[in-house]
Amino acid sequence: MTTALAEERRDARADGAAPPRRRHALDLDDFSRDEITGLLDSADAMRELLRRSIKKAPSLRGKVILTLFLEPSTRTRVSFEQAGKMLSADVINISGSGSSAEKGESLLNTALTLQAMRADLLVVRSPHSGAPYFLARNLDRMGVVNAGDGRHAHPTQALLDLMTMRRSLGDLAGKRVVIVGDALHSRVARSDVFGLRALGASVTLCGPPTLLPLDLLRGGGAGVPAAGIPGVSVEHDLDRAIADADAVIALRIQQERQEAGALPGMREYTRRWQVTEARYRKAKPGALLMHPGPMNEGIEIASSLAHAPGALIEEQVTNGVAVRMALLYQLLTGEREGGEA
Ligand code: CP
Q: What is the mean pLDDT of the chain?
C-alpha cells in the first residue's frame, strides 16, 4: 500500500532532492534509513523526559491530537496519549463505542468531522487493513498516524522495537533477528521486517507454514531466502532458527484473527514454537528477548521467561512512549530532532 505522498517522497529521494515534509506515518516501508535513525536518535533524547520528576515539555503546546481506537489497545493508546500530553499537546481520545460510529457514521465522515474541528493529527487503530491509508488520501488538513490496521502494519510498534534493540545492541547492521509465531496475522512482524531491513539486520521468520505471510515472502520456502525481500528467510524449526540469534521476538497468537484450520492445536503449537528457556539458551549469550504484548504467557513464551532478566518487554513499553513523542514532534513541527524538548 502506498500513498501519493509516499511515492513523491521516494521519487525525491531517488533524485537526491529533499523529500516533502512528512504529514502521515502509515508504515515503515516508505521511511528511509536516515529517517528511521533520525527518529530513533530523537526518541533516545526524548526518553530523558521520562526520568524527570516533572514530565512535561512545551514543544507541542497549541497542537490538538485525536486518537481514534476502533480496536482494543492498552500500550499504543495510552502511550500516544502520554506522549502527546508530555509534549503539552491537547490529546482527545475517541473509541468506537460511545461515538457516532455506533449510530452508523462512516469512518470517513467521522474523520472529516474531526478535521473540521481543526485537529492537527489523527492517530487511528482500525481492524481494517488499509483504513489509515484511505483516511490519509481523503484528509487534506489533518495528518494520519497508523496505530495498527488489521493484519497490515504497526509502524510505531516497529519503531519502538528498533529503538529497544538499538539501545542494547548498538548498530543493527549485520545483526540476526528471529521473529517467531503468527506472522501471518501480525502487523508487528510486517512493520518490523521493513524497519529491520532498512537498518541492515537480517530477519528469520519462524512458525507453522500456515501462519507465515506468503504475500510478504513472495516465494521464500523453508531454509530458503524469501524472494521478495533480501535478508529475510524462513525456518519452521525454532531450535534451528534461534541458534546464534542476536534478538528473538515472540509474537502473540491472534485468536481473534484465526481462520479455521490455520492454527495447529494449541498443545502442538506450544510444543514446537513456544520460546522456552532451553530454546532461548541456544541464542547468542545475552540475546534480547522481546514481545510486542499483550502476551499469552505459557503459549508463545514460557511464563518463566516473560519477566526474566534479558526479557525487554517492559523496556519496549517505556521506549514506546519515547518513540511516539519523537514521531508526534516530527510530524507536528517538521523537525527531526526533539532533544531540546
Ligand atoms: N503492542 C500493542 O499494539 O499493544 P496494544 O494492543 O495494547 O496497543
A: 90
76 Cβ closer than 6 Å to some ligand 1 atom: yes
Does a cis peptide bond (omega within 30 degrees of 0) precede residue 294?
A: yes
- Residues 56 and 79 grouped into a single domain: yes
Decide if 340 is inside a domain. Answer: no
74 lines ligand 1 (CB under 6 A): yes
Q: How far is the CA of 73 from the centre of ligand 1 (A)?
A: 5
Nearest ligand 1 atom to alpha carbon 78: 8
d(CA 9, CA 59): 26
Query: Contact at 8 Å (CB) between 124 and 146?
Result: yes
Q: Are residues 73 and 206 in the same domain?
A: no
What grid cell was written down for 330? Answer: 516530527
pLDDT digits (tens, 9 = 90+) for 87-138: 999 999 999 888 999 999 999 999 999 999 999 999 999 999 999 999 999 9
273: closest CA among 335, 182, 191?
Answer: 182
141 CA to middle of ligand 1, Å?
A: 27
Same-domain check for residues 277 and 166: yes
| Residue 180 DSSP code | E
Cell numbers for 248, please give them: 528473538
pTM, two decimals, is: 0.91
